[in-house]
Amino acid sequence: MNIRMLVNGEPAELDVPGMRRLLDVLREDLGLTGTKEGCGEGECGACTVILDGQVVDACLVPISQADGSTVRTVEGLAGRPSGGQELKLDELQRAFLETGGAQCGICTPGMLMAARSYIDAGGGPDQDAIREAIAGNLCRCTGYTKIIEAIALAAGPAA
Amino acid sequence: MTIRTEPPRVARPTSTEAALLVPPGEVVPGRARIRSPLRREGPQKLTGEAKYADDLVFPGAWYGATIRSTEARARLVAIERDLAFDWSHVVVATAQDIPGDNIVSLISDDQPVLVPVDGEIRHHAEPLALLAAPDRATLRAAKSAITVRTEPLPPVLDPLDSDHVFAHYEIATGDLDAGFAAADLVLEGTYRVGHQEQLYIENNAMIAVPRDDGGVAVHGSLQCPYYVHKALKRAMRLSDTQAQVVQAETGGGFGGKEEYPSIIAIHAALLARKCGRPVRMIYDRHEDIVATTKRHPAVVTHRTGVRRDGTLVAQDIEVVMDGGAYCTLTPVVLSRGALHSGGPYRCPNVRIRARATRTNTPPNGAFRGFGAPQVQFAAETHLNRIAEALGLSPLEIRRRNVYRLDDTTPTGQVLRESVAGEEVLERAAEASEFERERDRTARARVERQGSGALAAAPLATHRERRASGIGLALAWHGAGFTGSGEVKLASVASIELTSAGAIRILTASTEMGQGTKTIFPQLVADALGVAYEAVEIAPQDTAFVPDSGPTVASRTAMVVGGLLIQAARRLRQRVEAATGGTFADTYARWASAHGPIRVDQRFEPYPGVHFDDETYQGDAYPAYGWAACTARVDVDLDTGEVLVRDVVAVDDIGTVIHPVLAEGQVEGGTLQAIGYATIEEMKLRDGRYLNDRLATYLIPTALDAPRISTILVEAPFSGAPHGAKGAGELPMDVGAPAVVAAIHDAVGVWIHDLPATPERILAALGAAARPAEPGREGAGTAAEAPTDAADTERAVREPIIGGTDPRPDAPTDPLPLRGPRNDGEAQWPSGERASEDPA
User: Fold this and answer.
1) Do B46 and A78 touch (CB under 8 A)?
2) Which of B40, B70, B250, B378 shows its CA 20 to 30 Å from the CA of B556?
3) Residue A120 and residue B234: Cα distance in Å, rounded?
4) What pLDDT is recorded for position B30?
5) Strands A69-72 and A54-57
6) Are A103 and B671 an interchain contact pair (Cβ–Cβ within 8 Å)?
7) Hey, what CATH class is A2-76 in?
8) A-chain residues near B50 (CB < 8 A)
9) What kind of fold does domain A81-155 have according to CATH?
10) DSSP code of residue B402
């Protein structure tokens, strides 16, 4: 079926089977391999993207459900100031880099999207709230400590 | 000398100034060091630009799949193709297609790449045949058009029943009988642990690409490029250059990508050779769990003699590990297990007997800790029970026995330096206010005891729904390869200076999240006196880098990092001798005039370190890391669920190279240990893993994870030029026994089998209500009854006697089948259930 989406601000139009996973459309049809597959059944959160403002597991979303939607992936976080090639990390990515929130990096794109959504929704540096916000994203490297620290740092001081 | 380095608690500035490089060893008051460099490959990982195996694009690549056995043991009679299916777009590879030896080269030659027809299938999910097709739909259809015919054979599923021994060791010192004779108390206990899945979030993945020279290049997720290289050469009959192994960005390993990638690489290479194009073998989660290696299950029995004051006088330890169907790395895992099995404690009379046997279950292999977490769970839980029996605090009994400088281990190794067991123990106790917290939980237990209807079974009462406890554990972990391993390995690490003035590190040590690509340039820049950014690191590609050994055994920072410092020092001397100026000022000019230069540094034995593999005597490891951990838990008194609230992890890893990365190792390892302690359990039936998906094999989420406070202690190792020891595995050894001790502190029962699931906890609590066995009263040393209030009644009625478990009602029967087994559903005696109602 014919699908139109806005992916990281860019319009995308493609003709794919309606039950193709959003994850495969992103990775294979659009070449956005930043979104990862860890389990294919919505348990690990490695494929987390933001679909019309909602955090979703892209492995569980048939593309037919994303028609006409806005999708944000990890590739849309960093900016390219003045149209250059060099990526400028956003404050969340910067915080992950400085606190050591990314180790092997495979959960990182999904973790960043869950955290982005949390912060965009007005989430603050409260640890318990952050834990809740990333509870659907598994990390095997960090023990979550530095991820939580990074999100708290990016969320800024408590209101 | 040890230095405490506290992680900063304040939010760090987010500015982007160039990171400062501070030489290792330099201490800034109040904080460990000024900023360390940021993770080298961090920006790529954070923007999605990093390319993991499945992200790599090879035009025209086909997809590969594996046909696997569905039985634990059988004779392979035939592999049949459905002739009605269109096979024109599919290639099939079987054992007959293997150009070289049908062997996955590692320690023993017992494991085939593919089971040949007429051969024996030895485990469930064993590879039998391979398929490749241009698209996934064709591949799926082709898979179901293959039929495997077998003749079942009786499987061996219990490691204690198996007569095939992969390896066995005996380590002895002193006079065991005399030791037991001198003991005031002899305690025996059996502890069991099951499989644990590494559960890296990136599944195993390998892509094989045919080379013009008839060879094959494989790109994949892996820890050890030269293990894969060796296996590929042998099975595919390739020369050193025809076989090329390239590490893609790797999404976690934890040991799980140490040996299995060799199999996947050969499989992909066979298919690529047959269809003449690149082939992608990307495992999904189910296949990864069902087929790849796990942590070895183990049964560990301790018989320990102690004096009344808590001094250990005799340790008789038996370790049995389940190797699974093939040898893989089992002898080395068992060796480390045997050497660590007594724990970090002085004892004059020791016998350690360890064996690993073969069963018809998927092979077990490397996983962070490599045999040590299993045995140290047993050793620590046993020691905690001894402390309880003697009325000593867990802290005090460790103070009395922990290795100190110049103590001798059971292999006759004199600990001449870098001994920080006492330091980490005291730090952990202090930071967690261990004794005060224990007093508090003890008082709470007494109050709770009186508050409900169930006097003997301290479960849910009307006032309390939750019980808190604190537990302590201590461990050591040998840094680097065991025994003469490093000498045999003879690793090489290199630095090249190009004529254009680029400084490049060449090693086969892989980055899988732990920080290799950050700390290596840091160490080399420091040794050369140049900026961190001036040092590049070459990709982990066997076409370019020397064999610096596998990225395992917490050896990368200590051993390979040490080689790089030595290489850098030689390079610096060479340049400075020629130019008369400092390296930093003169190398670019010198390189452009002189031309490129490469310095290779080969491992040389650490001075004074000797080990005899035959007698198992000598220096088992050049140095040890030391770890202590305290855990505070809440146990839900209705459900038996455990929440680990806080952990203090104190780790001596020698000189800290990069505090943020080192803390990351401790925190991550600690949470893996907590998962091992509480929820991670592989269940088997007929030799097959039952919970073979991420929906059924659980690992901790952010909500399950405790707050972890990390304290790094630095007791440098003089054999390494920078003083670093290993960091990766150490925290894995202490988390589980600390949690189990905390559960005991909360609810008064010892859990002998990991994980300490709600079912096991409730069963143990149910057993506490059983009447005492007759005939036990009055014997032995009843005076040393536990002080634990929750256990008082039982302790008085069931005094400890020499040679018996202090808790005869504890489930210590010989291991049933494999690993920990559910000892039945939690049984609530009907009378108790009734008494829950308000009277």
Assistant:
1) yes
2) B378
3) 54
4) 33
5) unpaired
6) no
7) alpha beta
8) 105
9) DNA polymerase; domain 1 (1.10.150)
10) B
Confidence of residue B629 (pLDDT cuts 50, 70, 90): very high
Domains of chain B and CATH, by start: 485-612 (3.30.365.10)
Of A96, A100, A132, the CB nearest to B661: A100
Q: Do B47 and A38 touch (CB under 8 A)?
A: no
Looking only at the bridges linking them, the beta strands covering B707-713 and B642-652 are: parallel
> Lowest-confidence range among B1-15, B659-673, B707-721, B730-744?
B1-15
Whether residues B12 and A99 touch (CB distance < 8 A) is answered with yes
Per-residue pLDDT reduced to its tens digit, B338-384: 999 999 999 999 999 999 999 999 999 999 999 999 999 999 999 99
Q: Do A34 and B49 touch (CB under 8 A)?
A: yes
Token match 């009959």: residue? B237
Yes or no, beta carbons of B699 and A107 under 8 Å apart: no
Q: With CA atoms as reference, report the closest residue to B672 among B151, B197, B129.
A: B197
| pLDDT tens column, B272-305 | 999 999 999 999 999 999 999 999 999 999 999 9
Nearest to B7, CA basis, from A72, A147, A146, A131: A146
Count Cβ–Cβ pairs < 8 Å, chain A vs chain B: 183
DSSP B342-376: T-SB--SSEEEEEEEEE-SSPPP---TTTTHHHHH
Q: Which residues from chain B sit within 8 angstroms of residue A99, using beta carbons? A: 12, 660
Of the residues A35, A37, A39, the best mutation for testing chain B's interface (the one with the most B CB atoms within 10 Å of its CB) is A39
User: Looking at residue B462, what is its pLDDT?
Assistant: 52
CA B192 to chain CA mean position, Å: 16
Q: Which residues of A touch B11 (CB under 8 A)?
A: 152-153
CA distance A115 to chain B (A): 13
At residue A123, what is the residue type? G
Q: Residue B539: what residue type?
A: P
| β-bridge mates for residue B305, sequence order | B186, B314
Location of structure tokens 């190398």: B587
- Closest Cα to residue B295, out of B824, B820, B822? B820
Contact B199 A36 (CB under 8 A): no
Task: State which H helix or E strand residue B832 sits in.
Answer: helix B830-835
Q: Which of B201, B660, B661 sits opposite A138 (nearest CB)?
A: B201
Is B251 within 8 Å of A145 when comparing Cβ atoms? no
Task: Tell me the average pLDDT across B714-729.
Answer: 95
- Residues 6+ positions from B796 with CB-CB distance below 8 Å: B782, B785
Residues written for chain A: 159
In terms of CA atoms, which chain A residue is nearest residue B659?
A100
Determine contact, residues B379/B343, Cβ cutoff 8 Å.
yes
Per-residue pLDDT, averaged over B653-667, amounts to 97
Q: Which residues contact B424 (CB under 8 A, 6 or more apart)?
A: B474, B626, B627, B628, B650, B651, B652, B713
List of chain B residues whose C-beta atoms are within 8 Å of the C-beta of residue A102: 39, 42, 45-46
Chain B nearest C-alpha distance from A4 (Å)? 23
β-bridge pairing A69-72 and A2-7: parallel
Chain-centroid distance of CA B694 in Å reads 20
Strand B216-220 with B243-247, pairing: parallel
Which residues of chain B are within 8 Å of residue A44 when distances are taken between CB atoms? 201, 285, 694
HSE toward the beta carbon, residue B129, CA cutoff 13 A: 25
Contact A98 B252 (CB under 8 A): no
Mean of pLDDT over chain B: 88
Domain ranges of chain A: 2-76, 81-155
**Residue pair B676/B196 in contact by the 8 Å Cβ criterion:** yes
The three-state DSSP-derived secondary structure of B4-58 is: EECCCCCCCCCCCCCCCCCCCCCCECCECCCCCCCCCCHHHHHHCCCCEHHHCCC
pLDDT digits (tens, 9 = 90+) for B763-802: 888 743 332 222 222 222 333 333 333 333 333 333 333 3
Contact between chains at B513 and A93 (C-beta distance less than 8 A): no
